[in-house]
Each structure stands twice: as C-alpha cells, then as structure tokens.
Amino acid sequence: MSIKDDVRRWRVSPAARALVFVLLAVLVFYGLVLFAQFNSRDDAFVDHGFRLWAAMAAFSFTVWIALLGRGIAAIRAFPTSWQRGRSWWLASLATYAVLMLAATTLIRGVTRGNSFEVPIRHFPALISVLTAAGAAAAAPWVLSVWLAQERAQKLAEQGTSEDGAADFPAIAVTDVVAVWRVIERSGLALSLIVSTSTFNTGALRLALIGSDAIEPDDFPPVFVLGYGAFFAAVLVAILLPLVLTWRTRAFALVEQELPAPGPGLLSEDLLAARARMEAQLHVDVRFLRNPMAILSVLSPFATALITTLVPNGG
C-alpha cells in the first residue's frame, strides 16, 4: 500500500473534512475582522463586540457550506424515478429565488425606520452576502421538499388508478419511506440554517449593546423574536404540505394493503400487522410529538428567545 493511496483515502475521510471546515471558519472570521477594520467607524466596537458576531457568522457560514454540499449530494442520491429534467430544476430555482427575494424584501420593509446603525461602512452589503450564502445553502433542501411532494402526489394518483403496476405496493412503500427521509433530513437542515441565521441577528444585537455602540431600545428584542417567528412560519409553510401529503398517502397505503374485513373490532393479528406497517412507514407516532418535527419548527423561535434573554450589558 503506497503513501499516495493513504493520502487519497485521508482526503475523503471525516478528519480531512473537519479540518477543511475548521480552516474555512478561521479564514472567514479573520476576513470579517479585516473587513471591519478597514471600514470601521468605531474602533472600540470592532476590537471587542464585533468579534463575537464575526465568530458566530464564521461558524454559520461554515455550517451553510457543509449543508449545501450535503444537500446537493442528497439530490444526486435520489432514485431514478425521482429525477427531473433541466427545465424543472431551472424553473424551481427561479421560483425559489423569487420567494427568497420576496422574503428579504418583506423583512427589510418591516425593519425599515429602525434607529440603529452598525458603525461599519458597507455593513449592509456584507449582510446581503451572508444572506445569499444562507439562501444558497437552503436551496437544495427546499427543492428536495418540492420534489418529494410531487412524488407523494404521484403515488396518491397511482394508488387510485385501476391500471397500476402489479408491484406497485412495494414501490409505494419504498417511496413513502423515502419521502419521510426527505422530511426528516430537510427539516433538520433547514432548521440549522435558519437557527444560525437567527442567532447571528441576536449576536449582532448583543455585540452592539454590549460595546455601547447603541442603546438597548434602539435594537429591541422584538426584532430578534420577530425574525425567529417569521422563519419558524416559513419552515411550517415549506414542510407542512409535504407532511400532510405523506401522512395521507401512508395511511391510505396501510388501508389498501391491510384493509379491515368489515365492521367491528379488528383481530389481534391484523392490528399487529397494521402496527408493523405503520412503524415501517414512520406514521406510528404523531408528527407533532416527533422530536425532529419540534426541532425543525420551533428552533428558530427558540434560538431568538434565548438570545433576547441574555442580559444586554452596558
């Protein structure tokens, strides 16, 4: 075994990826610090409070890059039956870009007229770059949700047709489980993206107030709470249609494969078989009791709440 082979294996190992992301976070942090020093209007803020925000922003950026790579890999790993043509991807990306632009415009419209200003020139441009990075990281996960919803709807249509394939139940079970995996992974990835974005906003507030760059009333906690609540609502809007379609199709599949023989109580064997199938399809537990669902929906708002409860200082 040659050294060249060892190096090639190490390059794709978790240790190598961890090293790359740590180095990336360090580079982004010092890049942000240099940007602030060159454009500073308040050296005390740049030398103290800003570094707290820069560390959080560097960590968030690194997480986003990692999630972007995982999202692209997840899309490439979809079954052949899930694949779409270039026109679908272009149309979906254009739709996503318009939605992100609308959300950004809405947030800026709501926060317009606030009385605080970060004492760094071109800071809004920096925020725009970070916002674009976060939106890019979320793109493959949102598109995965849309693609999974189309697949779930197609399964529902096939399930009600009379000329379905003979092996349709086996295919349907596989696809329903695959849709659940999309819900689980996309929910976690999107919650991480929006939670780190929300934490960035809270960290900026703490940095500005802690270094006396602004007064606490100039950047009220409701801004951070509203930011978290807004993105919690966005997550619900993205995931809820898919969750409803998936659960409806999963329960219909159970009824189709293990129907009740008639009115009255079900036999123990049938109940056990239905319970096993529901467990296989992951519908044996109510979605709102699922820790992953709670984390996905509430994490942005919880993050905002935690950052606003930290003492303001000053």
Radius of gyration: 24 Å
Global shape: elongated
Summed over residues and divided by their number, the pLDDT gives a mean of 80
- The counted number of beta strands is 0
Parts with pLDDT < 50 across at least 5 consecutive residues: 160-168
What proportion of the residues is helical, as a percent range? over 70%
Number of helices: 10
Q: Which structural class fits the helix and strand makeup?
A: mainly alpha
Sheet with the most strands, sense and barrel status: none
Q: Measure the end-to-end span.
A: 61 Å
Strand content: under 5%
Instruction: State the order of secondary-structure elements, H for helix, E for strand.
Output: HHHHHHHHHH
Sequence-ordered SSE layout with sheet pairings:
Blueprint: H1 3-11, H2 14-38, H3 43-47, H4 49-76, H5 86-111, H6 123-160, H7 168-210, H8 221-257, H9 268-280, H10 291-309
Helix pairs in contact: 2-4, 4-6, 4-7, 5-6, 6-7, 6-8, 7-8, 7-10, 8-10
Q: Keywords, please?
A:
elongated, mainly alpha, about 0% strand, about 325 residues
Q: How does this model look, in words?
A:
With 314 residues, this protein is an all-alpha fold. Helices cover 77% and strands 0% of the residues. It contains ten helices and no strands. α4 runs parallel beside α6 (123-160) and α4 (49-76) packs antiparallel against α7. It is elongated and about 75 Å long. Residues 160-168 have low confidence and may be disordered.
